[in-house]
Every structure is written in structure tokens, then in C-alpha cells.
Amino acid sequence: MAQLPWHKSLQQALVQRQTDGLYRYPRLRQGPQGVNVKVDGQAFISFCSNDYLGLANHPEVVKAFQKAADQEGVGSGAAHLLTGHSQYHHELEMALAAFTGQQKVMTFATGYMANLAVIDGLMNRGDVVIQDKLNHASLLDGSRLSQATLYRYAHNDMASLHQRLHQTANIERKLIVSDGVFSMDGDMVALPELMALAKQHHAGVVIDDAHGLGVVGDAGKGTLQYFADQIAEKPILVGTFGKAFGTAGAFIAADELIIETLTQHARSYIYTTAPPPAIAAATLAALQINQHDDAYRQRLQARIEQFRQGASQLGLKIMASQTAIQPILIGDDKQALKLGQQLEEHGILTGVIRPPTVPKNTARLRITLSAAHTEVQVNQLLSALEQCHVH
Ligand SMILES: *Cc1c(COP(=O)(O)O)cnc(C)c1O
């Protein structure tokens, strides 16, 4: 007996996805995350994690996790607003407020949930949310949940944003939402121009800096710090821990009034169990490493430059990215899939990114670099790209 009466059409859709080169499945990793990974039984040099500083398996981070688990056990046991909010969550929130220079911070189990919260908790039906076309899916879902009217503007195109602001001039509450560093292209938001437009049109701004924190700006303070000299006021900031911090979870940093409002209204904060305290403790350790040791960022930057130089010598279609995300545009889905497979035969793992994650006909190899990569490993990547005739 089929579990769903429309079983047949589900099956047809899956077969179609396979034919189109769009089928996805999770692969099985054995052992820790890192630049050397074993996946489905095969060893690879990985260029597809978001562990940009190599902290996911860092001894200090692991030790902080273990120590907190010894003291407080594993589960937080309740939502933040009941008894789930531990001393470790509190310490992390205080440290992040100091780190970001914002008044107050609240933490979440995932970035996905923080993005739902920051939009759903502030906007309602009749309000307007204006988003960059290439924003992360979780930000779009936040808009949907809030029931505010969603407008999108052409990627990082301030004329297009300006037009949207004109179009919605009679709406009182408008929120502009953008990634800080775009997750599939690696480029940065035109923040000074965006902030100026927001001010002129009385709109609020949210920046999701999942890929900027730990990577760009002094002390890894991210996109807002990178542009600090050019912006007068700080936008609301979302940051995640699953990327450069090497742990899991996320935060919103903002004025106290905003955080208090979100605490009352954000459903993805209220109706969920707080993350384990040991995760907060590990994140605090990662934050300290990030803040006090620039060597990680310098190594990452050296690998980024090495890759970009080598790739342009090979004539590869790299994008205008100064960050750890260095995609090579392929275009055709099946061609991208084939190249990804060929690279795997050379022991190199890359992200093969296809629609709907990216626009149609822009399938790409998403190469991400890490402070943990060696110069030799990046050379191995470049030589594999050459041998596979990626161009
Ligand atoms: C990864 C990511 C998220 C989601 O964060 P998780 O903690 O993985 O749920 C949100 N926004 C952007 C831009 C991301 O890249």
C-alpha cells in the first residue's frame, strides 16, 4: 500500500529530477569535518565546507564543549523563556554584544530560525519587506511567515532597490533585508549605499552576515565592521555559528528595543527548545579564538589570493569575490554535475550548486577556502581544475 494516494506523481517527479541532473542526497561523512574528509568511504580534500577558519574540530572549542557538558549535561531541557536559558547562553550573548558593538543579543538554535525570527517578529500583514534577489532562502521564508508584502530587487542593484522604495513610499513600515556576504556568489552587499537609501526612505535594515563574520573586517567582525567608516548607524545584524565559528546556532544583535520586541513576538524563539548549553560554551571559545588570533584570517586570505591568482591564470570564470566563497560559473546543470564528479575522481570535493539554490543556467562549482587548507592543497585543487578542463 502506498503511504500517499498521489504516490505515482511523487515518483515521476523524482525520476524527472534525476534525468535533469537536479537530484540531491546527503552523503555520509566518516570522522570529523575538516579539509581532509572521508565521504562515502573515500578520502577527499574538501573545498565545500563553511568551516572557514577550521574551528569545527579545534581542540580549544572541543574542550569548552566537553567541560560545559560535564557541568550541565547535554539537553537544555526547555525553551529560553522557561528554564532553557543557561549561564553559557547568557555569557555568549554578552560577549557577542561587545563583539558586534550592539546593545543586545539573543541566540537561536540555527540561522534559519534567527532569520525567521528577525522578520516575523518585526513585520506584519500590510508591512513591506524588500529583499535582494539572491538572499538566503531562510530570509525569504521569514517574509512569508510574517505575511508582510514581499518585494525583491535585482542583486545588489541600488537603483532597483530605490525603485522598490519609491513604489512603497506610502507604506509606513518597510524593512530592507540583505545578505552581508552572498552565500552562493561570495560578493558583499553595497552597504554604505543601501544604508543611505534606507535613511532617505525611512526604512529599517537587516543584514544576514552568516558568511562575513570571522572572515571580513577587523578581528573578523564582519561586513558591518568592513564598512564601519562609511556607515553612520548600525543595521540589525544576524550572525550564524555554523560557518566561521565552527559550531552551530545563530544570533541577532540589535538595539535593546528590537531584541525585547523579538523576545515577545518571534515564534522561532518562543516555541522551541534552547540549544544545548555546551554549544554556547563552544561558540564562546570559538569567538575568543576568532577575536584574538588574526593568524587564521591571514592564512585564509593567503589561500583566497593564491586561488584567485591561479584560477585567473587558468582562465576560469571566477566571480568578483574577496571572501572564502569562490564559485566557478559553469551554467549547465549536468555539465556542473559531471565536472564535480571528475574532480572527485581527482580526490577533490567541491559543492555542485544547481537551481533552485541559484538562478537557472548559473549552475556552479562552489569552492570554499579555509584557513586550514595548505598552499599545496590549493595547488592540488588548481591542477585538478586544469586536468578536468573546467573553464
Ligand atoms: C547558512 C546560512 C543561514 C542559515 O544558518 P544555519 O545556522 O545553517 O541554519 C542563513 N543565512 C545565510 C546567508 C546562510 O549562509
TrEMBL record:
Residues bearing the modification N6-(pyridoxal phosphate)lysine: K243
UniProt entry tagged with the keyword Acyltransferase: yes
Boundaries of every Aminotransferase class I/classII large domain copy: 44-385
GO biological process, alphabetically ordered: biotin biosynthetic process
EC numbers: 2.3.1.47
Record keywords: Acyltransferase, Biotin biosynthesis, Pyridoxal phosphate, Transferase
GO function terms (MF aspect): 8-amino-7-oxononanoate synthase activity; pyridoxal phosphate binding
UniProt xrefs under Pfam families: Aminotran_1_2 (PF00155)
Repeat recorded as keyword: no
Pathway(s) annotated for this protein in UniProt: Cofactor biosynthesis; biotin biosynthesis
Cofactor(s), by name: pyridoxal 5'-phosphate
Binding site for substrate: R24, H136, T357
UniProt enzyme class: transferase
Binding sites annotated in the UniProt record for pyridoxal 5'-phosphate: G111, Y112, S183, H211, T240
Reactions catalysed according to its record: 6-carboxyhexanoyl-[ACP] + L-alanine + H(+) = (8S)-8-amino-7-oxononanoate + holo-[ACP] + CO2
Subunit and interaction comment: Homodimer.
Family stated for the protein in its record: Belongs to the class-II pyridoxal-phosphate-dependent aminotransferase family. BioF subfamily.
Protein function: Catalyzes the decarboxylative condensation of pimeloyl-[acyl-carrier protein] and L-alanine to produce 8-amino-7-oxononanoate (AON), [acyl-carrier protein], and carbon dioxide.
Name of the protein described by the UniProt record: 8-amino-7-oxononanoate synthase
Organism annotation: Methylophaga frappieri (strain ATCC BAA-2434 / DSM 25690 / JAM7)
Originating gene: bioF
